[in-house]
Amino acid sequence: MASRATHVCLCCRVSAEDIREAVLQRGARNLEAVARLTGAATACLSCQDEVENLIQSARQELREAQKGQPLLPFL
């Protein structure tokens, strides 16, 4: 993963931004999906709590961005 910011997962060199992108742009919704996409929290697991917090934060950001958007009709 990229080294654009301080790494959250040192074992797999995954940054907070990598985790945020996995949720916001790649559709990850839980720790297992983020781990599969980024490798975070797959080695020593010491970052697991921080990764879960980042996932929740990104999901909240996604919910806030979606507020007020019109529902799409079923086709």
In summary, what is this structure?
The chain is mainly alpha-helical and 75 residues long.
3D architecture notes:
The protein is mostly helical and about 80 residues long. The protein has one domain: Arc Repressor Mutant, subunit A (Orthogonal Bundle), CATH 1.10.10. The protein has 3 helices and 2 strands. A two-stranded antiparallel sheet has the order 1-2. A hairpin with a 4-residue loop joins strand 1 and strand 2. Helix 1 crosses helix 2 (about 30-40) and helix 1 (about 15-25) crosses helix 3 (about 50-65).
Overview features:
2 strands, 75 residues, elongated, two-stranded antiparallel ribbon, Arc Repressor Mutant, subunit A, 7% strand, mainly alpha
